[in-house]
Please model this.
Amino acid sequence: MAQKIKVKSGNAIVELPAAATKIFTDVMEQVAPNTMRVLRESIDEIYDDAYRVWPVRQTKDTSQRALIARAAREIEKDPEYDRARAYAVANALYLAGELQVDTTSSKSQDSKNKLYTDLTIQGDDIFASVGNTASYAWAIRVGVDTDLPFALGASVSNELLFKPAKKKTNLIVQVLADDLADDVKRAK
Model:
């Protein structure tokens, strides 16, 4: 996952190109190595954890018959297979335990792959963030069939992005304070 770094001044936001991002991170590694390490590790960990369990809309019917029919429709797209032959192949694959069918719903808008991480510089402040660019991400809720350990109706983005970030802030503040104390000691 490529790290995005943005510089913000007023309403203007500029995303740094790869070369400038490398220069910035190298400078920050020299100035506050532990802070940058903890920031990067924290947002990467939150991103990885959220990506791993982010719910994706699944098809409702996953019975044997529905799986075979879905696989047969995919096989039938190949000109070598007519409908009967495609169903026969799909059934044989199912019986052999080798049938691989994507159960992601066609209605899924792929919010899982719209997760992002970035660092934003605004004046003297640096903001590290993890988010989702899907406009409806705030509205995704834990449902009956969602395989997450949260309460029914809980906001997925709140549980997977905001709360973990809030838990990491004390660690980041402590490391930043230690880096600043080290800088003060070196300046004396």
